[in-house]
From TrEMBL:
Domain of life of the source: Eukaryota
Amidase domain boundaries: 101-542
Protein name, entry field: Amidase
Family annotation (SUPFAM superfamilies): Amidase signature (AS) enzymes
Active site: K162 (charge relay system), S237 (charge relay system), S261 (acyl-ester intermediate)
Family designation: Belongs to the amidase family.
Taxonomic source organism: Popillia japonica (Japanese beetle)
GO CC entries: endomembrane system
């Protein structure tokens, strides 16, 4: 098959074949050119697609037998249904004690976590003591409530943290057996900002191994499950945050996003998630890290929340730049809408579910008809051609972490064959997903020739310039966050490429993007769309998210659905 494709690619570039193909099938020649230039990567995608379809009957049978949902306990305390914005106000005004709020959330987490497996390590006792100090402070006669509202807008409010974001004295193993037992010596920059704003961290939550997967399955912490169907993944890599917040066990949290790791679990768990403009939030204290400055152009820390208004509050706290005015009013009639229901054909990725396509259309029609936003006649539709470029640019980062290398013992060598043998006869050191990532993606550069890095950089720059010219300071792009709802964890192999195209594109471009929940598909799983704007127009994304929440209900509790 490979030889046949190579021959076709060569012959297609020679006359008279090129002329004929150009006249008859305009896109075919460009496809053949891509085959010729990056045959290895395309063949890998071809194998992924073949494997997906050949295993479909077996997966259908397996999921039919092992598909019993385990409903999570319902949340009954009204305190669990306030937004962080409203809860902070109630605490400041002494209508409710922070200690009661903290204990309520701790009780909720304990009742639900045995179903989800989303907690790595907690600090409940310390959190209760900190809440007591908040209540003492607010009861002092000379306390300036107005000043507290400005300087500590999250005072007394519980927050959960993805394990990769350092919380002093808590686990920082990031799902790696090599890092097991590692503790953070100090808070990371984002956590420090949350504490300064008065938030009280409760725990660190699960992540995929070294944050390199869209599923939270690790050899250290096990599998994190989805509250809407415990047989499905909670997403990744911020899957623990997604599961806790979506289940009503947490209110707000932070995760990191290198290729969709905030937005994908946010969608899978029916909540909001925001990937900020590149470098708008400091990544100091995040693990994995990388000495190459390019790394922070792509990775960012962002908030996850059940209620859209809390994203804005969180971003005001987390931002290290004043380039975004989160209090600015937006004239909705001046907003231009760009949209795409699908990215087109990208070998190895999934086609977009019909319910998600419909969700995009609903959003566009609602914003146009109700808020008089203008639907642009221009199209931004090159996403099916940049998947290779996204991978190439992410892998162009120097000294990126290697899953098959123990950071504590860099001289010790681990191999793919060795790990495969250990997985059969004992317990491996590294998950199969990360073995694959190391061998074929990181070490093998995604089977994309390194000589093409400059070409791919130019391609992404062209897309970036085109989008900036289209979106400017008053445009939004609406498209699927992910092509499918949450899947079974064992299906991860044919979903990884989805992240590179649907979400990873905007990491490489550095654009802000907000995931908005849009109800459920026919199987009862959450779906969503993402709102994208030009760099430093984060406020526009968040304003639109709040509008859509009012119309399409936003977060809808899983226990109201799974218990029916």
């Amino acid at each position: 098959m490979t030889i046949l494709l190579a021959v076709c690619c060569y012959r297609s570039s020679q006359p008279p074949y090129a002329t004929f193909l150009h006249k008859q099938i305009p896109t075919f020649q460009s496809i053949l050119k891509r085959f010729r230039m990056e045959l290895g990567y395309l063949f890998l995608r071809f194998l992924v697609t073949c494997f997906k379809w050949t295993t479909f009957p077996f997966r259908k049978i397996y999921f039919g037998i092992f598909n019993t949902r385990v409903p999570i306990p319902a949340a009954e305390d009204p305190l669990l249904f306030y937004s962080a914005t409203k809860l902070a106000k109630l605490i400041r005004e002494k209508q409710i004690k922070s200690e009661i709020v903290i204990k309520t959330y701790i009780g909720r987490i304990k009742s639900v976590n045995k179903f989800l497996n989303a907690v790595v390590e907690d600090r409940y006792l310390e959190a209760i003591e900190e809440a007591k100090q908040v209540d003492i402070l607010l009861n002092q006669p000379n306390t300036n409530i107005e000043k507290i509202a400005i300087e500590k807008p999250l005072l007394g409010v519980p927050v959960t943290i993805k394990e990769s974001c350092a919380v002093k004295d808590l686990s920082l193993s990031v799902g790696s057996t090599f890092m097991k037992g590692t503790k953070a010596r100090e808070d990371g920059a984002a956590v420090s900002k949350l504490r300064s704003a008065g938030a009280i961290p409760l725990l660190v939550s699960t992540t995929s191994e070294l944050c390199l997967s869209v599923c939270c399955n690790t050899l250290v912490n096990g599998t994190t499950r989805n509250p809407y169907n415990t047989n499905r993944t909670s997403g990744g890599s911020s899957g623990g945050e997604g599961a806790l917040i979506g289940s009503g066990s947490s209110l707000i949290g932070i995760g990191s996003d290198l290729g969709g790791s905030v937005r994908i679990p946010a969608m899978f768990n029916c909540i909001f998630g925001h990937k900020p403009t590149a470098r708008l939030v400091s990544c100091d204290g995040h693990w994995p890290t990388c000495p190459d400055p390019k790394f922070e152009n792509y990775i960012t820390i962002g908030p996850l929340a059940r209620y859209a208004e809390d994203l804005k509050l969180m971003m005001k706290v987390l931002s290290v730049s004043n380039k975004v005015n989160f209090d600015a009013e937006v004239n909705l009639k001046n907003v231009n809408i760009f949209f795409t229901e699908d990215i087109g054909f990208y070998l190895g990725s999934n086609s977009v579910q019909s319910e998600i396509k419909e969700a995009v259309r609903k959003v566009v029609n609602y914003l146009h008809e109700t808020h008089e936003m203008r639907i642009s006649n221009k199209r931004i539709d090159k996403f099916d051609t940049v998947g290779d470029s996204v991978i190439s640019q992410l892998l162009a980062v120097d000294d990126i972490i290697r899953p098959l290398q123990d950071p504590n013992n860099p001289d010790v060598k681990y191999t793919m064959i060795g790990q495969l043998i250990k997985s059969v006869f004992s317990k491996p050191d590294i998950t199969p997903t990360n073995v694959f990532a190391d061998v074929f993606i990181i070490r093998g550069n995604g089977l994309i020739p390194k000589s093409h890095t400059v070409k791919h950089h130019s391609k992404m720059e062209q897309l970036r310039n085109k989008m900036i010219n289209c979106l400017q300071d008053n445009g939004i792009l609406i498209m699927p966050t992910f092509p499918t709802s949450a899947f079974h964890s064992i299906e991860i192999g044919w979903h990884m490429l989805n992240a590179s195209v649907f979400t990873g594109t905007f990491n490489v471009l550095g654009f802000p993007s907000t995931q908005v929940p849009m109800g459920f598909d026919k199987k009862g799983m959450p779906i969503g769309v993402q709102i994208i704007s030009a760099p430093y127009q984060d406020n526009l994304c968040l304003v639109v998210a709040e509008i859509l929440e009012k119309r399409f209900k936003g977060w809808q509790p899983p226990f109201e659905r799974t218990n029916k």
